[in-house]
Amino acid sequence: MSWKSREGEASKSAFVSRKWTLLFCIGCFCAGMLFSDRMWSVPEIEDISSTTRVDDETPKLGSGCDPTIDVENEPKDVYGEVSKTHRAIHMLDKKISNLEMELAAARAAQESILSGSPVAENLKIPETRKKRKYLMVVGINTAFSSRKRRDSVRATWMPQADKRKKLEEEKGIVVRFVIGHSATSGGILDRAIEAEENRHGDIMRLDHVEGYLELSAKTKIFFATAVASWDADFYVKVDDDVHVNIGTLGATLARHRPKPRVYIGCMKSGPVLAQKGVRYHEPEYWKFGEEGNKYFRHATGQLYAISKDLATYISINQHVLHKYVNEDVSLGSWFIGLDVEQVDDRRLCCGTPPDCEWKAQAGNVCVASFDWSCSGICKSSERIKEVHRRCGEGENALWNAAF
Predict the structure, then answer these.
(1) End-to-end alpha carbon distance in the chain
(2) Sign (positive/negative) of CA torsion 275, 278, 282, 288?
(3) Are 234 and 136 contacting, i.e. CB atoms less than 8 angstroms apart?
(4) Which of 114-118, 134-138, 312-316 is the least confident region?
């Protein structure tokens, strides 16, 4: 066989091999596709069946097709649960707020003790007071020159000796005259007050230098000292030339016990006096806008009451609270921007007879009585007995009162 014939046969053989190789690859591909389709079809069917079983077992909520489901009552139940949860959160928030206030007050008291201030001595003595809860602490603002006024108050609406102790123990009412120190420490004025305290035991001394232009500072220190010394629902400031019916005051404040931050008094908004030399002149009048503007609403200074949370707030922040020349304006400014409820109760600012007398006869006994023209009872040391006789609530009203 020639070389050319052998070469032709080899070419035909290679062509046949390539043809069978191609057919073999196509066959393998088809077999692989068939095998792959069969392998994936089984899981797919299983997934569909399992999904169907899950759907069958899942409750059909809110479908409206199942007559056993009460769709109409379901929103009410949800709203009820939401309301309960809201109340629970509100109560928890209130408890946390109270604990924070108590913690801050305790820290302030600790700092006072560590600093060795005179106020801290007051904190160390009344250990039994801290364990007792009182309704109110009444601080009667007084001065060194007001001995006759103090005696007239003792002779009328302020219980003395055993009755004052009974008032604290049975009614939870603490009443004290509030006064600081003279500019000359240990001088004759301070010794006179110490002798008066030894005789009556009804004076609260403050770490404060007395002065007419320092009433705002005195008010601030009074609340800080009182809240550190007695755990009460309310703290009251009253002037020593005002007549007060303690039982009626206690009943009035007791109605506001559920309110955590309440500020009670005769609310007013008097003019800002820019003219020098007049009474109640406001040196910082420019802060209140144009001349002739009025103050923001605040309680008149003869008598007002604040809840424990507000007294604690004053105690904690006393070093940064601004003092205006008028103490009632200062107190009102300290609460601006806070979530405080103002209660305007006109029974806290009745006039002297016949005004308070007519109201008492009508069954609306006044809490406090004074003359607006004098910002107190005019010549109170002489006239307060008459006011007490004609407008007083009666001794039995106090002792029979339930707070």
Answers:
(1) 137
(2) negative
(3) yes
(4) 114-118
11 pLDDT above the threshold of 80:
no
What is residue 128's predicted lDDT score, i.e. its pLDDT? 43
* Every domain of the chain and the residues it spans: 133-267+300-400
Q: Ramachandran region of residue 324, left (φ > 0), alpha (ψ -120 to 50) or beta?
A: beta
Give the span between the Cα atoms of 379 and 149, in whole angstroms. 9
Residue 71 has pLDDT above 70, yes or no: no
CB 306 within 8 A of CB 262: yes
Q: Which CATH number fits domain 133-267+300-400: 1.10.3680, 3.40.50, 1.10.860, 3.90.550?
A: 3.90.550
| Strands, E assignment, 90-247 | 133-141, 173-181, 203-209, 231-239, 243-244
Average pLDDT, the chain: 81
Residues 373, 377: Cα–Cα separation, whole Å = 9
Instruction: State pLDDT tens for residues 249-276.
Output: 999 999 999 999 999 999 999 899 888 8
- Any idea what DSSP says for residue 156? T
Q: Which residues, at least 6 apart from 372, have a Cβ–Cβ distance to it below 8 Å?
A: 349, 351
**Three-state secondary structure call for residue 231:** strand
CA atoms within 13 Å, Cβ hemisphere of 242? 29
Token match 């600012």: residue?
349
- On whether the CB atoms of residues 264 and 304 are closer than 8 A, the answer is yes
293 alpha-carbon distance from chain centroid: 30
* Phi/psi at 297 (5° precision): -65, 135
Instruction: Report which of 217, 225, 245 is spatially closest to residue 367, judged by C-alpha positions.
Output: 245
**Structural contact between residues 328 and 263, judged by C-beta atoms closer than 8 angstroms:** no
Write the DSSP assignment of 104-153 as a string of letters.
Answer: HHHHHHHHHHHHT-HHHHHHHS-HHHHHSEEEEEEEEE--TT-HHHHHHH
Lowest mean pLDDT among 29-33, 124-128, 347-351: 124-128
